[in-house]
């Protein structure tokens, strides 16, 4: 992948170019004024300025990349602006392990944590809905639309299904990642290490039972006044331990 960004350091603008794969990272960071001066000297036909850089490097996808292997890596980036070819050249140096971690490994872990949190919250919602339907059933409600009736959600079976379906494609390392995310303490430390802010909390109105009667259930006759004493099933209403695991 290739990434371009603009940074402000001590009131001075810098342009940073990063080239990376799954093994290594190369980069160049230089003052914006130096990049403009260098490109104008390299290609005097084009007037390079702040506006051109903002509308190309920092705004749109390039139409082509060329990498020349030298003592470092020379990256040529090509754009078409008003039918005119515009190129930028960067002299990339090998990055450190810390830079590779910052620009690749940490974002990947944040994505894994985000998807894991979304999955756990969706499972919690499904389990809550099952408990809600069971509560209705105990109170005598009957589902009219039997064609949409579903079996009770089994979170463990759900997890096993996708592992079994992809048995050949899942490596030992993949299983290690999955197992690593199971303990709550591990997820907490991963979030802390990657400065991950979990915004996947389920809004309260999504998991609460509706105040009025549901249109998909019926008591089978004339509506009766709801009794104050209600049958309860174990574990209802359900708690959401994952929603408490927010930073």
Automatic annotation (TrEMBL):
Positions in coiled-coil regions: 115-146
Compositional bias (Basic residues): 223-233
UniProt keyword terms in alphabetical order: Coiled coil, DNA damage, DNA repair, Nucleus
Keyword 4Fe-4S belongs to the record: no
Region span, Disordered: 207-247
Domain XLF-like coiled-coil region, residue spans: 98-143
GO cellular component: DNA ligase IV complex
GO BP terms: double-strand break repair via nonhomologous end joining
Superkingdom, natural source: Eukaryota
Localization (cell): Nucleus
GO molecular function: DNA end binding
Family: Belongs to the XRCC4-XLF family. XLF subfamily.
Name this polypeptide is given: XLF-like coiled-coil region domain-containing protein
Species of the source: Anopheles triannulatus
